[in-house]
Amino acid sequence: MTVDLTQMFERLEHWLAAHAPRIHAELEAGASDADLDALEVATGHRLPAAYRALYRRHQDWGQTFPLDHVPLGHVLHEWLVWQQLEAEFQEMQDHTSHPAGAITPQYINLGWIPFLKDWGGNSVGIDLAPGPGGVSGQVITFGRDERDKYVLASSLEDFLQEYLCRLETERVTSSLSDEPPGQAEHLALHDASGQPVDTYRTLADLFPGFGASPRR
């Protein structure tokens, strides 16, 4: 099934304007194709159309998701940090893919391109170098503390579609924090019991019911 990304983004923006106006007000202008082309050249990976479309719509989606969106200008910075660490940290022991075989079980893989992060060295991103049981472009968790890595969706389109479905069916809670310089709005998805998930052991906990994420 073909996903109309433009329509999906319009629905997402409409929902934010109605239910999370602070987040909607902070959406930034879109990135240029030249900027996205430069990221492809630097990483050596061709970006999926949905990833490019996400950033062309807004180069920074702010707090639209349960984790902070990574502005396009920071994506390359984060990738370069991993590139610098790759030679020193080739570890594969104690890294697990969920489901088995979908994600290459290792600490660092330069085919992982982030779009969400927790500011603790952990990310949700697209996997352009999947394991034998995975698909290129799948959305996964990875990072400093993410020894258990989870496939959240088979593509960014599917991830966005599922997330939008949660918003439009009211399976999300919006709350305000008092972090400086002013109140920030935060979205938390509901688990199977209808409770908002605002704490986590692994990033996949924040996306209950997505792909292979742990049951909550």
From TrEMBL:
Residues 30-162 form the Knr4/Smi1-like domain. It comes from the Bacteria. SMART domains: SMI1_KNR4. Pfam families: SMI1_KNR4 (PF09346). InterPro entries: Knr4/Smi1-like_dom, Knr4/Smi1-like_sf, KNR4/SMI1_regulator. This is Knr4/Smi1-like domain-containing protein.
